[in-house]
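thread from #wetlab-drylab

HS: before we spend reagent money on co-crystallization trials with S-adenosylmethionine, can we at least see a predicted complex? here's what I'd submit
DV: go for it
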Amino acid sequence: MRSDHRPRKRFGQHFLQDQDIIARIIAAFRPDPGERIVEIGPGRGALTRVLLDHTAFMDVVEIDRDLASDLAEVYGERLHIHQFDALKFDFCHLAGPGLPLRIIGNLPYNISTPLLFHLLAASDCVLDMLFMLQKEVVDRMAAGPGSDDYGRLSVMVQWRCRVERLFAVPASAFSPPPQVESAVVRLSPYRQRPVAVDNPDRFEQIVRAAFSQRRKVVRNSIGRLIGPELIARAGIDPNRRAQTLSVADFAALANLSVHTERQTGNSVQRSTDTGENRS
Ligand code: SAM
């Protein structure tokens, strides 16, 4: 790698330098030849070079043109380099028939939440994902009802994936060190989701509305989308707060609202709510 590359803050560049942590990440990922492996943000290749000990070639998505060209120089045809914004990248086009993607990355923390939502939308063609993220984001993904960390991200991730928090990583493992603690998490999309959702858009809409006003009781926060009688008919006390509802509760609300709407022919106004910071 070129020694004159200076880490770019706007791309969230904190490069892994701790060889033990790199080895632990790869051991947790367990790459095998013949798999369709994709790395997001390979940077200077800290994970890439070890992954290539296990696979003949792999895909990487890297936004930084200089790093992408350095990687091309070092690894040649063994790396399929997509110099592209991962937020706009169509991951599913890399999957083959019967060959779902295994995605890995020490993700740029400044875009981690939108990137996770983008990847969740592609989860049907993904076998598993192993990511380094801010510890706070991993805590939110893994949190259950009743926890302060539980929110929109928890529900939307846990509906689609099994979440395993693997281990914490200190800031000293990176150069330059980030200001926050980090953690490694594995997400395994369900082939058969334990909670059935009839209309994913409605589910998303209700979860978003509920957590955009997380201090309010649900009859107030989602009342515009589903009235108190229907909330009660879903078996949920309308005076509960979003933070206490399980993924299955949100699914029950969404499914009931869609069925009732079909029966009555009413259409619920689409939410324009974007006001949630702690997604
Ligand atoms: N994998 C390397 C490592 O562990 O040392 C680098 C990790 S660094 C935290 C994040 C990487 O993601 C950087 O290489 C950065 O250029 C890249 N990146 C940032 N934003 C990106 C985006 N929108 N799309 C693709 N790559 C991005």
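DV: Strands lie at 15-16, 36-40, 58-61, 79-82, 101-106, 126-134, 161-169, 174-175, 182-189.
HS: ok that's useful, forwarding to the group
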